[in-house]
Each structure stands twice: as C-alpha cells, then as structure tokens.
Amino acid sequence: RIPQSGVGKSSLIQEAFGVKGVEISGYGAGKATIEKEFKSDQNGRFVLHDSQGFEPGETKNWDTVKTFIQERDKQPELKDKLHAI
After folding, report:
1. pLDDT at residue 73, rounded to an integer
2. Which residue ranges make up each domain of the chain?
3. Gene3D superfamilies recorded for this chain (predicted)?
C-alpha cells in the first residue's frame, strides 16, 4: 500500500531516527524535496530523503520518486546508493 499524504510519516521518521530539519505540516500534506539529505544525530551513516506522499491518480510525485531511485541505483559509490525505502 502506498502511504497517503498528510498522515504523519515525516513526524514519525523525525522522532524515530533522530533526524532534524524534516518539514512537518500540522494539517494535510507537507512539502518535501526528495533530493535534500537529512542526517541523523544518532547515526551519521543514516541519511534520509523525504518525499511527498502519494494521492490516488497523482503521477508527478511518483515520477519524481521513481527517477530519484533510478539515479541512486546508478551511483558508483556504495554510500551514495539507496539502501532502503
């Protein structure tokens, strides 16, 4: 199941992983830029990329995330690849 917008994913990851600076919207979907890196104070090797949620029928953000994943897969350095979604 694809996570919907505005359900608190960014708040959860900020609290669970000690990642600061993730934009959190109190009402509805927040604004996120998947290219921006957020690093955990608890583990410097943990890097988070937050994307906007997905709404039924919406394709622009899906295309953005798909392209991001494909580009990360092409990175020559292991540290620059995507390790989990």
Report:
1. 94
2. 9-80
3. P-loop containing nucleotide triphosphate hydrolases (3.40.50.300)
